[in-house]
Amino acid sequence: MRSIEGNLIVGDARFCVIAARFNDAIVARLLDAAVDTLSRHGADDSQIHAVRVPGAFELPLAAREAARGHQYDAVVALGAVIRGATPHFDYVCGEAASGLNRVSLEFGIPVAFGLLTCDTIEQAVERSGTKAGNKGIDAALTAIEMVNLLRQFNA
């Protein structure tokens, strides 16, 4: 039996890290952690491009443009949506998740999902670097692993 798994070595892979500006106090921590993780796993500055978009709803379009240009091996999408008193949360989260998934499937590249969808600001703070770790790290690790996994399918 042949087993296929990705590893966590960046090698020559190139990454586009797209981060929403909305809820920037949270997202900036996700962005810093994602970039630091990519660097710690071997990426230099030329292999990481950061793109800022207004909010989570704009992540899929920016991810599509990044994927369409074929200059990146993976996209890391970062943002934070915090539930309010209206259904706005549900629409933004659902459309952002669906859009990012479509980009990944359409272009055949990993789009790591680093979008926090939280009920409270406290949950967002926990997931951006305190008790629950930092989901920017998780998204960056996912991107690295998936790049390497997909390369094995073509080897």
Task: Describe the 3D structure.
This protein is of the alpha/beta class and 155 residues long. 47% of the residues lie in helices and 22% in strands. It has a four-stranded parallel sheet, with helices on both faces. Strands 5-6 form a two-stranded antiparallel ribbon. The longest helix is centred in the middle third of the chain and has 20 residues, at 88-107.
Task: Give a quick precis of the structure.
The chain has 155 residues and is α/β, with parallel strands linked by helices. It has a single domain, classed as Rossmann fold. Helices cover 47% and strands 22% of the residues.
Look up the CATH topology.
Rossmann fold
| Name of the CATH homologous superfamily | Lumazine/riboflavin synthase
| Overall residue-averaged pLDDT value | 96
* Approximate helicity band: 40-55%
Count of domains:
1
How would you classify the helix and strand content by structural class? alpha/beta
- The CATH architecture name reads 3-Layer(aba) Sandwich
Poorly predicted runs:
none
Topology order in helix (H) and strand (E) letters:
EHEHEHEHEEH
Strand proportion, as a percent range, falls in 15-25%
- Count of DSSP H/I helices: 5
How would you sum up the major sheet?
4 strands, parallel
Which key phrases capture this entry?
155 residues; alpha/beta; two-stranded antiparallel ribbon
Detail the topology: elements first, then pairings:
Blueprint: E1 15-20, H1 24-40, E2 48-53, H2 59-68, E3 74-82, H3 88-107, E4 111-118, H4 121-127, E5 128-130, E6 133-134, H5 135-153
Parallel strand pairs: 1-2, 1-3, 3-4
Antiparallel strand pairs: 5-6
Helix pairs in contact: 1-5, 2-3
